[in-house]
Amino acid sequence: xxxxxxxxxxxxxxxxxxxxxxxxxxxxxxxxxxxxxxxxxxxxxxxxxxxxxxxxxxxxxxxxxxxxxxxxxxxxxxxxxxxxxxxxxxxxxxxxxxxxxxxxxxxxxxxxxxxxxxxxxxxxxxxxxxxxxxxxxxxxxxxxxxxxxxxxxxxxxxxxxxxxxxxxxxxxxxxxxx
Length: 178
Description:
Elements: H1 3-16, H2 24-31, H3 37-53, E1 57-62, E2 65-70, H4 75-82, H5 92-104, E3 107-108, H6 109-116, H7 121-129, E4 133-138, E5 146-150, H8 152-158, H9 169-177
Antiparallel strand pairs: 1-2, 3-5, 4-5
């Protein structure tokens, strides 16, 4: 298929599965294409089309896949429409714990305690319940504590493709010293 033939098909597939980002590999399987080069080109074209149009919806690469989302600058209006606050409300302790896990993963509860200086057990439970973190196995030390890391849901909730898109720790240090 040509890129112009692929674009509307890919757009329809992405629209039909709005909740979960779809990886390039899955799109290639669905379209039964030998090479993903034309699909990459079609996706790039779709991203460009939505950016050029500058409408309320954009096509983004998130969590290793592609998904439609509303533009960030319209979030306040979406919140008003839904008449609710963001669904991922977290306590300050949970946010701090999540930040430690995101930047230091895989990390154990004792390591988090050492960094934060306070117990994080209830924050860990909250983050596990919200599926923002997952168990990443056990550390090979005495007691074999569980190690934790961020999940695909974390990437989706924060609208990033991978952990390299997290802000640098130096940027935060600059904010504190200013």
